[in-house]
Amino acid sequence: MAFNSADTAAFKNVWVFCEQRQGKMMPTTFELISEGRKLADELGVELCGILLGDNVDGIAKELGGYGADKVYVYNSPLLKDYTTDAYTKVITDAVEEIKPEILLFGASNIGRDLAPRCAARLHTGLCADCTHLDIDMPIYKNFLREASTLAEERIEKLGTVKINGQDHDVSRDIKMTRPAFGGHLMASIFCPRFRPAMATVRPGVMKKREFCADCAEKVEILHPAFELSASDIKTEVVETVKAAKKLVDLIGADFIVSVGRGISKDVEGGIKLAEELAEVLGGVVGSSRACVDAGWITADHQVGQTGKTVHPKVYVALGISGAIQHKAGMQDSECIIAVNKNENAPIFEVADYGIVGDLFKVVPELIESIKAA
Ligand code: FAD
């Protein structure tokens, strides 16, 4: 029977696209599997990974350790390197065949390229760059609450309603949340009429579960038959070149010392102080976008809505005002320490410890006292 994304009742289970490069799983995949586990538990369905590559069975079990029940593995030399054509074909064919209800991708370069292409082929919706996912009351119930005279108990009990002649289960839906209007509000997005509901999720936002070795042993690995030939692929990967300079690993860091425009009177000196403080803490240097835009530091250091989302054990903000777009990337840190000479700076609203003062005086004292401790 022809695939119909509007036949929502035919879809089941939560899927995560498991991104690997050169046979190594990307950290975002484990975050998504962990988050997918929560959604699958709430829906009472299975969590499945979809893994594409060449001889990647060896890394499939790891996914079970983070919560996957099953992994669909598609091995082929044609899938060794990522190409939009090949990956789109295999994923969309698999979705048409097996029909997952929810399909998640990391908002990495590959995910941002692949997910929209798959969504268009599947005639479904995609919510890009999500920062939060939950199973929630679908929009229809909220609409009914506001627009109808139906009693709350009757709305609560609603299971299936007809929309454009199709039956839709309105007792549950996935709510996808993402920043909108430059981060000034958080938008809740539903995709109630089409399946799978698809989302890309920002790396570093979802927390990875503890690895469970027993679960990794129990995960079911499946190899569905699939068709892919060289003629399906219009691009050829000639060479993969590694970035010459090692980029700063903000997402994996426990301690981050970030600089803002407050270092402007001595940029070099300010960055050096941040590096020294990061070194005594065993952490790395981050920054606000103001410093990146000014060319004082490279873009891989940027924290915030258009940079990285981090949740280290300790985040130190030096001379950063605390604009909403910066806070969007760091406010879930376990402990926030802010140094700012303006006692009304918004960064103090999210700080656990605030020091009002000139960073060029405060930071050397901080470094000395940490060294002495
Ligand atoms: P400022 O706002 O200029 O603050 C400098 C602070 O330093 C002030 O609070 C000042 O009191 C303090 N200060 C000055 N001198 C000293 C001193 N000697 N000692 C101590 N304190 C001092 N921003 C991001 O950071 N990340 C993003 O991802 C991001 N994405 C954006 C996306 C969009 C769509 C838009 C519109 C904006 C985005 N921004 C982002 C920019 C954001 O709005 C702010 O402009 C930016 O965060 C400001 O950086 P800042 O705090 O370093 O500078």
From TrEMBL:
Residues where FAD binds: 261, 288-289, 302-306, 319-326, 340
Keyword terms, alphabetized: FAD, Flavoprotein
GO biological process: fatty acid beta-oxidation using acyl-CoA dehydrogenase
Electron transfer flavoprotein alpha/beta-subunit N-terminal domain segment(s): 14-237
UniProt source species: Vescimonas coprocola
SMART domains: ETF
Entry cofactors: FAD
Cofactor annotation remark: Binds 1 FAD per dimer.
Annotated Gene3D superfamilies: HUPs, TPP-binding domain
Protein's gene: etfA1
The keyword Secreted belongs to this UniProt entry's keyword annotation: no
Name of the featured protein: Electron transfer flavoprotein subunit alpha
Family from the record: Belongs to the ETF alpha-subunit/FixB family.
Source taxonomy: Bacteria, Bacillati, Bacillota, Clostridia, Eubacteriales
GO molecular function terms attached to this record: electron transfer activity; flavin adenine dinucleotide binding
